[in-house]
Amino acid sequence: MADKRETDAISGVSTTGHEWDGIKELDNPMPSWWLYTFYACIAFAALWVVLYPSLPFVRGVLGYTTRNDFTGVMREQQARAEPMLARLRAATPAEIAADPELRGYALAGGRIAFATNCAGCHGSGGQGATGGFPSLADDDWLYGGTFDAIHTTISVGARNGENPEARGVQMPAFAAAGLSMAQVDDVAEYVLSLSGTGGDATAAARGAPLYVENCVACHGETGEGNRDLGAPRLNDRIWLYGGDKASVVRTIAYARAGVMPSWSSRLDAATINMLTVYVHALGGGER
Q1: Residue 74 assigned as binding residue
Q2: Residue 118 annotated as binding?
Q3: 41 known ligand binder
Q4: Annotated binding residue at 171?
Q5: Which positions are annotated as binding heme c 1 (predicted)?
Q6: Is 219 assigned to a binding site?
Q7: How far apart are CA 214 and CA 192, in angstroms?
Q8: CATH number corresponding to 83-165+262-280
Q9: Is 122 marked as binding a ligand?
């Protein structure tokens, strides 16, 4: 590589003295407009650092932040929505559902609140999921599907340890409460027979008196369930934790205890009312 300055014979411009494989670099100055633009960018950057929070722990002379800007926008939106929200707080869910204007607003707001707070467990359409997440789109309810029942369930939750009025009681783990695994298996066969899915009539016959002794108080003589306790029906084919034999045996032997948060400490009254109307409208709401 050569390092020799000379004047280019074609352009008449001096070279920088750098050459590689016969290619020489001309020593052309940068265009003035480009240099002035570059200097202006440097000056603008320095001014920006002074005016706005561009460096750690430096708030800037103007004190502007996007967080403050967003807060202002949210306050404006809240003020705009407040008249309608006040009406939603003052009305009961049944009254909201009976008013076309309030109902339309509640369904739109409830859909958003549901997607944000409830869909993670109950599914985007309220279809629920095996594993203790009940469907909200059918007519099978643990605690009732009226407006009042749904509102209470959303407000206080279930077995959450944070609200003293939370729904639900603890189901015993019968394998630790006196039943042998053989007896648990017999009870499971009887429970399955209540919905017509049992496969061993002899085992079900052995499980019947065990069911009466241990399960009737909560689930009823025919497996109709008890909404006051949140004890699910056993005589249909809708299962929270699976309706196969192994799942039923596990439920009886070791118990299940689904937990739902108390939303009254997280959401305001208007949002809970909107959620109530939305959930009631998913398909299984009762009058």
Answers
A1: no
A2: yes
A3: no
A4: yes
A5: 118, 121-122, 260
A6: yes
A7: 16
A8: 1.10.760.10
A9: yes
Torsion over CA: 216, 218, 220, 224 (sign):
negative
Tell me, what amino acid is at 216? Answer: V
- Domain 181-254 bears CATH identifier 1.10.760.10: yes
Pairwise CA distance, residues 8 & 258, whole Å: 85
Q: Which residue has the tokens 């309706």?
A: 243
Within this chain, domains 83-165+262-280 and 181-254 share the same CATH topology = yes
**Which amino acid would we find at residue 123?**
G
